[in-house]
Amino acid sequence: MVRQGRAGQGPARRQRAWESRRNYGYVAGALAAAGTVSVPVAAALLRELDDALVLRGLVELDHFGGRAFPVEQAATPPPAPPDGPQVWLEAEIERHLDLLGSMVPGERPEAGGEVLRILSGPIRAFAAAGADEPCGRLVEQLAAALVAAGFAVGDLVTDPMVARPEWVRFLHERPIPRQAPGPVAHRRELREALGRLGGRQVVLAGLGWSPDRLDVSMLLRPPRGDEADHQSQGLRVRALDDQGRLHLGQVGEISVAGEVLVHLRPGLGPAAASLQLRVTAGGECLTTGVVL
Question: How many angstroms separate the first and last alpha carbons of the chain?
């Protein structure tokens, strides 16, 4: 990757260097979020790449750090959360499915293969760390779901029997694009403590829903401070109702007071009576059942 260019190379090589840097950062962030390596080590790995790219004239000089690799921190990584790589990967897959949900496969069939390409770096890194079997199953389920929904996955051979029904249904339904949120038809106050994620206590404050969206309101305690680590920045929320419908959305800004409102789509129909909610941060997740 670094050997692609020398000082003074042209724009094409610089572009490839920046693409490599972006991909490398994505992999390092995934390893740290899943608990496979510590956050300081992941940051140091990216600094090492930056230094090499600067010395070859492929990125600007202000990216040069010149600091030693933190060997003492590399020798004592923090305990990894159980099943961290697959927890992170499943949440990341569903984040991408939410982005694909508004696309028409016939117009963008290559988008499925692009998702697999983006995820391939972390997947290879997790495999090298010994998580190849569970992560491999997730990739098989994803590829099969993409094909079932009409997306192309290149030369991969997929088995339709392994596709997750809720993933296929979400992609087939193509929920309406996010719009400016208006009032919802139903609300429930809950104030249910779910547990701790990334050093924060997570409280499910309430739900609001209409046929077009499902709102999840949460509180993160403490709102700020030394106890809250980087994983809260990678918060993911999903819901699966008792009708087999998956509800996905992107988490927005967390307020200074630790409040976050997540808009999921699609909404809930009149037949839905309960749902399973999952909140993920890095390689940790919390789940709860809610009766509507």
Answer: 52
Q: Are 277 and 264 in contact (CB under 8 A)?
A: no
Name beta bridge partners: 204. 192, 218
Q: How far apart are CA 69 and CA 15, in angstroms?
A: 26
d(CA 260, CA 281): 14
H helix or E strand, kind and range, residue 209? strand 200-210
Give dist(CA 232, CA 49) in Å, integer. Answer: 26
Positive or negative CA dihedral for 96, 148, 120, 107?
A: negative
* Residues counted in the chain: 292
- Distance between CA 37 and CA 272 in Å, rounded? 41
What is the Cα–Cα distance from 114 to 99, expressed in whole angstroms?
Answer: 12
Per the CB < 8 A criterion, the answer to whether 259 and 217 are in contact is yes
Domains of the chain with bracketed CATH: 2-74 (no CATH), 84-173 (no CATH), 186-291 (2.60.40.1640)
- Cβ neighbours around 190 below 10 Å, total: 16
Measured CA to CA, the distance from residue 154 to residue 100 in angstroms comes to 17
Mean pLDDT by 10 residues, the chain (292 residues): 46 71 79 80 74 64 60 56 88 94 83 92 87 88 95 89 96 76 87 90 95 92 58 81 94 86 92 96 94 92
Measured distance CA(37)–CA(178) in Å, rounded: 35
- CA–CA dist 260, 193 (Å, integer): 15
How far apart (Å, rounded) are the C-alpha atoms in residues 260 and 120? Answer: 30
Identity of residue 167? W
Angle at 218 between CA 212 and CA 223, to 5 degrees: 145
The single-letter DSSP state of residue 167 is H
